[in-house]
Write a structure and sequence with these properties.
Chain lengths: 816, 370
């Protein structure tokens, strides 16, 4: 007796339903399923309550976790239905496909995550291969094989046919005809797999009985009725290369079942299929209701009348197109026309949330360890980094190869949310080639590793996949830039193109200059890191330049009409951007444009004073604004017409914040005089208003600077009245006239240095007494000199260098 | 996505024959070959209507010219909507063949595309419902004889397809007259205590512009009586360049502008700029862009080029150059002085400046932008 052959399409809900009906109608003694026999031991876990599809069987080579293959199973997968049915009845289940040990050895090129072995070739990427469904669909007059299969097989309603076994018989005949015409159709490896399946079937017959059910891809159905000898099948399998493999269950997601995520599991619309499988009846009506619910949650007005009309339109469209039932295409067209006002925007949401769906599978904890854990353990051994529960510090010198690898590993783990190491502020050196980490291995990190297993089988591939995913789903621009930075630190060169792409897109669409401004510094830093670690950062530099250009364009309008708080935020951004502009590579730096932007900011009235002052200051510091111009801007900002609060804000912007602000005033008396003059003009009421602002500005200065400023102000009248006397003042920071007493004091030293002999009164100098000897200088200050010290300091001129050994007081003392 | 120009001009006297006259032969052949079920009141089956619009060959060898070149899905949804007795709303920016599609749909479904209400800001209720023959009204009092039915009323009575052009230009209160017609399928005549009930086959096609400023948005009550189909802009740059240069040529001739021999390059440039800003992505697909608030439709590209031609003819050397179109483009793109200016400058700096062969254009744009 031939076994019950249940040919299916992997992940086909109609197939799944048909398989269940067939198994119910003719219960077999054992169920054989196309899949790797190594997984037999894991089958019991499928009955576990904690196991929730979508899940995948993962096989990987023990020595090379990067070589792996997945067999994903959703709850609408016929294989999964068969497994659950059998486990529920206590019927034995066996996997009968070629062992993963062979397929992994043969498919040395199978990349991690590709679902090569489980594919039935329905969507053959290889053009030489015959697509059996395409041939059948073409014969039926369809241009799209998937659609044909859906119309003919998947969309049969529950209990559509009277005989649950009839469809499989018909399908078997069709496939037999195809195989008779095309042979293996380019799927050469299938012959080996089918030989193995036949051998397994024979041994199962011996073990159980003749009442067997085989669930396999429809393409393989004819293989089981082929007349071959055991010896011939054995011969095919002889001498195949083999690798040591391990298997486990891993959680899977609908997104990864979907074709668009790059995993060739073969379906576009897992959410839709899941719906078709789960809906007890009236699938279109239920689907439309689901869509309406989603749209309502997003605050779109969708009434029951919309649902009714959408269902009608979908069904009439199906009739116009000659399909037995409305499929996903018809429902989507109907939803667009009726519920979405013809717009594609809400449709994208529906596609994302419902058609693909967010379902995440779960796997019981007692499933065997994932290969990622193995790869991690191996890396830990190689790098001599033992996971310890005790916290410890780790200093890394990135110039050493081992330390650099350690740093990369830790950064990659951090990207995967495996928080084994936390970077800390380094002790001692803060150079870019040093990193400090605090390591601590918590037991729950094992769970984290298991969770991260969905991303890949090695730390590197998983981190790349995770980074790419994070880049696409990141909420804001700053999130992506920091991700880019972390990618560079972790040396995930493969992830960079995706991250950069996401970054450029996000930057282009982001209308908030603040976001751009906050993103640029991280990028500029990353560029510097790129230098240290010799990674290729040209893509990064391009994005950073683009960002800088956009900031140049967008900043001026964004600075207008801000309140005090907004101006404060913008000022921080402005500073950060200015610093970052300086870090960009010289040939890409928009230097001229940026200073033009700053110049524009400094003179525009609509810009708050704080920012105008800041822009002027940044220009001045860069030497792009000469001091006369700065003084003009300041006097403009502080003139009588300006409201006092605005002027105080300008002052804060110009000289506040950074510690260098005060020195500017100390050195440039003109500016100081302007501030001073303005302050004395402020009316008493306004003074109370601006006082907190001014206090904030000046209290940030270093004590020395503050004191000097105070002294200068105390000398104020001289400054104010000295207008005409100082007209020839040459060097700012120095009094225009000679301080005669001090000048005298210098003379003896000068003489000594120049070797001019003959001390004595010098009539030309006109400065009175000159001490005869030098050697005594600075060694024996007289007591009276000490007494005058305080006074002497008050008199000290601004910026007068305090030369060690020649104390002002001493000279004064000697002079007496 | 364009419009077939080959109106087989059967009526030689008329400047522009109606669709049902111009393509009478095709409609006849389709009706003869059509063996599929027809909804009550339809001249053709939905399948045949779709074929009429999309083109094809009939078993008897008649070739049906495509009336609408664009996604098949759109025509299918439109025809199906009419078959489910829901009203159809064709949305799209100007120049996307909305009117053209609606005329041909009405011609194919009802054999008559003339039951038309042209929507304007001044369209009164009477245009949609009915008016009165005042001489008769004064002489004999209100009666059905004194009543002058509007196009929609005639369509209801005869089971035909009515058309409303530019629905969103009509004031909101007048728009809402359609609600009863579309939901109850009746048109009450309170003066006579009567009503007109629509017979099977009646339906309504409205067109509206979805990006025009200052339109009267549809109330949600009215909106949900319609299935909406958005007609897209030309799919490829070549199509659009073709449409623009053809139209510019026609307009230019009617304005007696001298022919601009080397203008194609600039036309292509205008179309590229418009498409890039409209789609929010550069032509090479590598840079995303912000989109300005203006429509940037094909029709506007045409007017920019025409304006540029006039500049070149009257003030320049007769050849269309970058400087001639730069100001026009700026005017079309920057509708909102604050937001759009940023969009435009970003576009200039990130896309135009780097592009090979666009230096003249970049300079010309910078000149007018600052």
């Amino acid at each position: 007796m031939t076994p019950l052959l249940l040919g299916v399409r992997h992940h086909g809900p109609g197939s799944a339903r048909a398989v269940r009906a067939a198994l119910e109608a003719a219960p077999p003694d054992a169920v054989l399923i196309e899949g790797p026999p190594e997984a037999d031991a894991l089958l019991a876990l499928a009955a576990d309550d904690r196991m929730r599809p979508p899940v995948a069987l993962l096989a990987h080579a023990v020595d090379d976790p990067g070589r792996a293959a997945f067999w994903p199973l959703a709850d609408f997968s016929p294989e999964w239905v068969a497994i659950r049915w059998a486990l529920g009845r206590g019927v034995p289940v066996r996997f009968i496909d070629l062992p993963a040990a062979f397929s992994l050895a043969a498919g040395a090129v199978v990349p991690a995550g590709a679902v090569a072995p489980a594919e039935d070739g329905a969507a053959g990427a290889d053009p030489v291969r015959v697509d059996p469904l395409a041939v059948l669909a073409g014969a039926a007059g369809y241009d799209d094989p998937e659609r044909w299969w859906e119309d003919v097989v998947e969309h049969r309603g529950p209990g559509g046919g009277s005989d649950p076994l009839a469809p499989f018989a018909a399908l078997g005949e069709a496939m037999a005809a195809l195989r008779g015409r095309y042979g293996h159709g380019g799927h050469e490896r299938d012959l080996v797999r089918e030989a193995h399946m036949r051998l397994q079937l024979r041994s199962a017959r011996k073990e159980f009985s003749d009442r067997l059910a085989v669930v396999c891809g429809a393409w393989h159905m004819p293989a089981f009725s082929e007349k071959t000898t055991v010896a011939a099948d054995r011969a095919l399998l002889k001498g195949l290369p083999k690798v040591r493999t391990e298997m486990t269950w891993v959680p899977w997601t609908h997104r990864r079942l979907a074709r668009q995520s790059g995993y060739g599991a073969g379906i576009d619309s897992p959410g839709w299929y899941g719906h078709l499988f789960q809906a007890p009846d009236r699938p279109i009506e239920r689907w439309m209701t689901k869509v309406a619910g989603l749209l309502r949650d997003e605050d779109r007005i969708v009434s029951s009348a919309h649902v009714i009309e959408a269902v009608r339109l979908a069904e009439t469209l199906a009739a116009l197109r000659g399909r037995p039932h409305a499929g996903l295409t018809e429902t989507t067209d109907a939803i667009r026309a009726v519920m979405c006002d013809g717009s594609d925007v809400p449709l994208d949401l529906i596609r994302d949330r419902l058609v693909v769906g967010d379902v995440l599978g779960e796997v019981p904890d007692d499933a065997p360890a994932v290969p990622l854990q193995r790869d991690l353990s191996r890396a830990q051994r190689t790098l001599r980094l033992k996971p310890e529960a005790r916290e410890r510090e780790l200093e890394l010198d990135l110039r050493k190869e081992t330390d650099a690898s350690r740093s990369r590993l830790l950064h990659r783990l951090r990207l995967l949310s495996i928080g084994w190491g936390e970077p800390t502020a380094g002790r001692g050196s803060t150079g870019t080639f040093r990193e400090s980490w605090r390591l601590r291995w918590e037991p729950e990190l094992h769970v984290r590793v298991a969770e991260a297993g969905v991303w890949g089988t090695t730390v590197l591939s998983a981190a790349v996949a995770k980074a790419e995913n994070d880049a696409v789903t990141a909420a804001d621009l700053a999130g992506i830039t920091s991700l880019a930075e972390r990618c560079l630190l972790a040396e995930l060169t493969d992830a960079l193109p995706v991250v950069m792409r996401a970054l450029a897109d996000r930057a282009a669409l982001d209308a908030d200059v603040g976001h751009l401004a906050r993103a640029l510094p991280a990028l500029a830093r990353s560029l510097r890191y790129g230098d240290v670690r010799s990674t290729d950062t040209s893509a990064l530099a391009e994005v950073a330049t683009g960002l800088a250009e956009r900031i140049c364009v967008g900043l001026p309008p964004a600075c207008a009409g801000l309140d005090a708080e907004g101006a404060g935020r913008m000022r921080r951004d402005l500073d950060a951007v200015h610093t970052a502009m300086g870090l960009l590579p010289a040939e890409r730096r928009p230097g001229e444009r940026w200073s033009a932007v700053l110049r524009g900011l400094a003179v525009r009235d609509a810009v708050p004073g704080l920012l105008r002052g800041r822009a002027a200051r940044l220009l001045l510091d860069d030497g792009r604004l000469d001091e006369d111009e700065a003084a003009r801007l300041m006097s403009l900002a502080l003139s009588t017409g300006t409201p006092p609060a605005e002027a105080a804000a300008w002052i804060e912007g110009f000289i506040g914040g950074a510690s260098g602000g005060g020195m500017l005033l100390v050195h440039d008396e003109r500016l100081l005089a302007l501030v001073d003059g303005w302050l004395t003009r402020v009316s008493p009421e306004a003074f109370t208003d601006v006082l907190p602002l001014l206090r904030r500005t000046f209290s940030a200065y270093e004590p020395g600077v503050r004191r000097t400023l105070g002294e200068l102000i105390r000398r104020g009248p001289a400054t104010a009245s000295g207008g005409q006397r100082r007209s020839e003042a040459a060097i700012p920071g120095f009094a225009p006239d000679l301080h005669l007493r001090r000048a005298d004091a210098v003379l003896p030293v000068l003489r000594l240095l120049l070797g001019v002999p003959g001390p004595g009164p010098d009539p030309g100098s006109g400065t009175g007494l000159v001490p005869g000897t030098g050697p005594g200088l600075g060694t024996a200050p007289g007591p009276e000199a000490k007494g005058s010290a305080a006074e002497g300091r008050v008199e000290q001129g601004p910026g007068m260098p305090e030369t060690p050994g020649i104390e002002d007081d001493d000279l004064a003392g000697v002079g007496r | 996505m364009t419009v077939s120009e080959s109106s087989a001009s059967t009526g030689a006297e008329v400047l522009r024959p109606h669709a049902e006259d111009a393509f009478a032969e095709e409609l006849k052949a389709l009706a003869a070959a059509d063996d599929r079920p027809r909804p009550t009141g339809w001249r053709l089956s939905p399948w045949a209507v779709a074929t009429y619009l999309l083109g094809g060959a009939l078993p008897d060898g008649t070739v049906i010219t495509p009336k609408y070149v664009g996604p098949r899905r759109i025509v299918e949804v439109a025809v199906t909507t009419l078959a489910t007795d829901r009203a159809l709303l064709l949305l799209g920016v100007p120049g996307t063949a909305k009117t053209w599609v609606s005329e041909h749909l009405a011609a194919a479904v009802s054999g008559d595309s003339t039951l038309l209400v042209q929507g304007t800001a001044g369209t009164p209720e009477e245009a949609i419902r009915y008016g009165w023959d005042y001489a008769r009204l004064l002489a004999h009092g209100p009666s059905r004889d004194a009543l002058v039915p509007g196009p929609v009323m005639r369509a209801m009575a005869d089971g035909m397809t009515a058309r409303v052009e530019e629905l969103t230009r009509i004031p909101a209160d007048v728009q809402d007259t359609l609600i009863t017609i579309l939901s109850e399928k009746t048109l009450p005549i309170p003066e006579l205590g009567q009503e007109v009930q629509a017979v099977r086959g009646f339906n309504l096609i409205a067109t509206a512009n979805d990006r025009d400023r200052g339109v009267n948005d549809l109330s949600s009550a009215l909106r949900r009586r319609f299935n909406t189909v958005v007609l897209p802009l030309p799919a490829t740059p070549d199509d659009e360049v073709d449409i623009v240069s053809r139209r510019v040529d026609q307009i230019g001739r009617s304005l007696d502008l001298p022919a601009a021999p080397e203008g194609l390059e600039e036309i292509r440039r205008v179309v590229t700029v418009f498409r890039e800003l409209r789609d929010g992505v550069s032509a090479d697909g590598r840079t995303k862009l912000k989109t300005p608030s203006g429509t940037l439709s094909t029709a506007e590209a045409i007017s920019v080029v025409t304006g540029g031609l006039a500049l070149a003819a009257h003030f320049g050397d007769g050849v269309l150059r970058s400087a001639d179109v730069a100001a026009g483009i700026l005017g079309a793109v920057v509708r909102d002085p604050a937001a759009d200016r940023v969009v435009w400058q970003e576009y200039l700096e990130t896309v135009v400046r780097e592009r090979a062969g666009w230096q003249d254009f970049y300079r010309a744009c910078r000149e007018v932008s600052v």
